[in-house]
Task: structure prediction
Amino acid sequence: MRANYHTHSKWCHHGTGEIEDFLESAVNAGLEEIAITEHVPHKDNLDYNRMWWEDFIPFDQSLEKAIQKYRQKIKIIKGFECEYYPEEIETYKMFQKEYGYELLMLGQHRAGKNREFDIFAPKGQKELQAYADAVCEGLSTGLFRFLAHPDVALLDYNENKWDPVCEKTMRQIYQCCEKYSIPVEINANGIRGQRRYPDKNAFILSKEYDLQYLINSDAHFPEAVYDEAVQEAERFAKELDLPLLEKL
Result:
């Protein structure tokens, strides 16, 4: 892996470590690029597990300071992990235009008209359909550079067994990724946490589509930037012969 585009520090409220700790870890691992991609803040602050709206300015100042310090050692990209919520799209554009958060990835953690479906909760067919619909609507906006953990919604569905509903869900998502030329992430944090994703059946199915893939750490502590979970993701991609992008 030459780059990591999925990184969370203490600012997301469920990570640990200063921004500079992650940059130092990336430099020591020999990476050429790293994106700092906290969960994008929302004005309503309804979700504790993301940056609070009032924390954005001090966070941005800290990130800019770190970029200046490490700019000769590694390319650092400002970004955010975002859900597709139609009412938030103008805010996402504002972060891009006014503050230089150029890399927006789609990481859908809730779905439904009122954000009522938690992707990490037990779920049924209705929730999987809502997830797939939200992902495809989000990708159609053209705002997002890649799709994070595309198969995350399979977690805690049907006792983590693959079935026709899983296949239908993933086919819908892969068709949209193919249509909009959106790279698909192989997420090492799922491996790190011994979760269902990356789901082997889902990625075998993905080979029926014209897709490109990224391995990302989804690091929540500095040592995770390049660790055994990332190496396992590399072995996973090699086993399935998935065409990897080394850098965006």
